[in-house]
Amino acid sequence: MQLHFHKYQGTGNDFVIIDNRQGIYNELSQPTVEKLCDRRFGIGGDGLMLLNGSKDYDFEMIYYNADGRPGSMCGNGGRCLSAFAKKLGIQQNAAKFIASDGPHEVVYAENGWVQLKMQDVDYVEIGPGYFFLDTGSPHFVRYVTGIEEMDVYTEGSNIRYNERFAEEGTNVNFVQETDNGIFVRTYERGVEDETYSCGTGVTAASLTFAKGAPGAYTVPVQTLGGPLEVRFTKVDDRTYNNIWLCGPAEWVFEGDIKI
C-alpha cells in the first residue's frame, strides 16, 4: 500500500502528517507508525498525525507518539497540522479543530506564525523545586542553571521513570530564565529522548514563569529549535486562561512510501 505523506516542523519538533479525510489510514498499526517515525528506517519524526474530517470542526487531529502509540495533545503538532490544513485550502485566516484534549482555535498570523489556543489550566502542583501541571499533556517543570550543558536525556529519563511517573509517564522540562524570557529544554515521553522543542512543554514552563500579579502575560521562549511565544492571562498561581502558543510551522517535504 502506498502512503502519501508530508513532513512539517515547528522549531525543530518534526512530524509526519497524512491527509486522512477519506479514512484510508484509520487502521495504522503501532509497528507501522513507529517505523514511519524511525529516523533510520522510515521517514523520521517526533510523532505522526492524521488530519481527519469532522462534522463539527474544520478538521480532527489524531496524534501518535514516535513509539507508535496514541499520544495526548501536542502543541507544536497542532500548529503544524493547522499549517497543513491551510495548505490544503481548508481555511485561510483562522480554523477550529478537535483533538484528544478537546477543541482548539487557530489564527494564521501575517508573519507566517501559527497561533494555537490551548486549553485552560485550573490546577498547578507546586512542590519543592518543581511544578507539575497538565497543558494537554502532563509536564514536570524544574528551574535550573547551566541549561545548555545539561544532560537532558539522563536527567529527564530519571524523572520520567521514577516511582511516581513510571507507569503513566510525564514530560520533563528544564527551564532557565533569560534576559527577557526563558530557555526550555524538554525530555518527551513517547519519544523517550530530548526533542528540539515541545509546545505543551514551553506552555507549561511559561505559566510557571509568571510569578507576578494576575493579568495578561507574554513570555518569549527559546528552544533548541528556535523561538516561540506564549500569551495568557494569569488568574492566580494555579489558574490560567486564554492561553496561546505562537510560533513558526513549516512544510519540509512530501513523498510516498510503501507500507
- The low-confidence runs, each spanning 5 or more residues with pLDDT under 50, are none
What gross morphology would you assign? globular
Order of helices and strands: EEHEEHEEEEEEHEEEHEEEE
**CATH fold field value of the largest domain:** Diaminopimelate Epimerase, Chain A, domain 1
Mean pLDDT: 97
User: What share of the residues lie within helices?
Assistant: 10-25%
How many individual β-strands? 17
Span between termini: 5 Å
Provide keyphrases for this structure.
Diaminopimelate Epimerase, Chain A, domain 1, 45% strand, amino-acid biosynthesis, isomerase, 259 residues, diaminopimelate epimerase activity, alpha+beta, 17-stranded mixed β-sheet, globular, lysine biosynthesis
Structure, explained:
With 259 residues, this protein is α+β, with helices and mostly antiparallel strands. It folds into 2 domains: 2-118 and 249-258, Diaminopimelate Epimerase, Chain A, domain 1; 124-247, Diaminopimelate Epimerase, Chain A, domain 1 (Roll). It contains 4 helices and 17 strands. It has a 17-stranded mixed beta sheet that branches. Strand 12 and strand 13 form a beta hairpin. The longest helix is centred in the first third of the chain and has 13 residues, at 75-87. It starts with a strand and ends with a strand. Catalyzes the stereoinversion of LL-2,6-diaminopimelate (L,L-DAP) to meso-diaminopimelate (meso-DAP), a precursor of L-lysine and an essential component of the bacterial peptidoglycan. It catalyses: (2S,6S)-2,6-diaminopimelate = meso-2,6-diaminopimelate. Homodimer.
